[in-house]
Amino acid sequence: MKYFVLDNEPTSEQLSAALGYRKATSVEKWLVKTTDSADHSLFPGDGLTQAEARATVSGSTDWNGPTPEQLNE
Amino acid sequence: MADIEAANGVAASSIEAINGVAKASIQTLSGFTVPSGGVTALADLEHWWRLDEGTGTSAANSVGGAPALTHVSVTHDANGNRTTSEDVVEYDGAAGLSIVNVTNDSNVLQPVGVSLMQAEMSITFWMRIDSNLSSWECIFTATDSGSWQDGLGCYFKTAGGAESDHPEITGLWFWTAQGEVPPATATNYLSSYAGAALAAGATGWHHVACVLGATSTIMIYIDGVAGTQITSGGSVLAPSMEDADCIRYLSVGASKVCTDHAANPAYYASVSLSDFRIYDKTLSAVEVAAIASTSTVDWP
After folding, report:
1. Are residues B272 and B80 in contact, defined by beta-carbon separation less than 8 angstroms?
2. Is the peptide bond before B239 cis (omega within 30 degrees of 0)?
3. SS3 for A65?
4. Which of B55, B192, B218, B255 could form a disulfide with B141 if both were Cys (CB 3.0 to 4.6 A apart)?
5. What is the ipTM of this complex?
6. Where in chain B is the domain with CATH 2.60.120.200?
7. CA B207 to CA B134: how far, in whole Å?
8. How many CA atoms lie within 13 Å of B201's alpha carbon, on the beta-carbon side?
9. Cβ separation of B94 and A71 shorter than 8 Å?
10. B95–A72: do the CB atoms touch at under 8 Å?
11. In the CATH hierarchy, which fold is given to the domain comprising B46-292?
12. CB pairs below 8 Å between A and B: how many?
């Protein structure tokens, strides 16, 4: 799998090459998931591995909002 | 043929064994093959997503008339190896989840406007951790609340943090909450945790059972072994989900709360799952152990 972080909503052409995507919560960013065999030239940069994508979104308030623990304080 | 309601004057619900064989272990009755997990467990199975399609964006429900799960950005692993011939669904911890709209599900999740969940239910599944999990990564949730103050769910949490009603332990937590009364105190937020089998670096498949009882019982089992219950929360009531206007989901592999919350979905988990079931009853420890001890299922 290869992941790409976009600053704009994915185009229909990009979506046609994607398994799916998610949008960040508090910033204008989209994480697009593609297969290894997809046309990666449709996306900017070299992309991220799954581990890098997880590190990008995990624990981030940009992507997940405040944790339940933070909200419950 | 009508269901058997009693035998020799003993109500079916009270039968523990037949001819010395524990009910959960009975596999055959006069030529009728009973599925693994036992008679009682099967009769109360309300939803069963095997997650073994191996392709596509839909997971069929093996209970007749019950809804399918819709996959979003998941991948299928044909070499999941929970059993020798079963595909499983991989959730990547970044963008993959499965959802089902349960707003009007009258089986397990009750209609809007009344108690939205039953006081007695059990959710079981097989799980493989595919990468070291981070705090709050969700295996499943069904809630209106971005801070999980209603409904129920299961998440992973590493040691640390300030939440007063949670001990400092790394493990898997099953929670149920009683309403949006911030902060989530010990009187409206109940948890059970178990962790040893799922520590960082854990490999292989584990069976997880999240059991909600009517009388002050909430329990998570891992591989048939009961975890620790947070007992300070008082009685367990039917978890409420209070926003009558939203569309709500059972989400698997992440937490997708109802549609009027911004952080949605969130807390994606890096796990593979198989054989996700919801029972319309409080499974006993014996029943959980029976289900966890089986590697294959053959019904329906």
Report:
1. yes
2. no
3. coil
4. B255
5. 0.90
6. 46-292
7. 20
8. 0
9. no
10. no
11. Jelly Rolls (2.60.120)
12. 92
Chain A residues with beta carbon closer than 8 angstroms to that of B93: 50, 53-54, 58
Q: Is the confidence at residue B108, as pLDDT, over 70?
A: no
pLDDT given at position A41:
97
User: Which residue in this structure is represented by tokens 């493989």?
Assistant: B128
pLDDT digits (tens, 9 = 90+) for B224-268: 888 887 654 555 555 666 666 677 788 999 998 876 666 688 999
Chain A residue numbers touching B264 (CB-CB < 8 A):
25
Taking CA atoms, what residue in B is nearest to A32? B95
Cis peptide before B300 (omega within 30 of 0): yes
Q: Quick check: A25 contacting B, CB < 8 Å? A: yes
The mean pLDDT value for A7-33 works out to: 94
CA distance B293 to chain A (A): 32
Return d(Cα B245, Cα A58) in angstroms, integer: 30
**Residues B142, B239: Cα–Cα separation, whole Å:** 10
**Structure tokens that stand for A72 in this block:** 């419950």
**Looking at CA atoms only, how far is residue B255 from chain A in angstroms?**
10
Ordered DSSP codes for B169-218 = --EEEEEEEE-S-SS--TTTEEEEEE-GGG-TT--SEEEEEEEE-SSS-E
State the smallest CA–CA distance between residue B262 and chain A in angstroms.
6
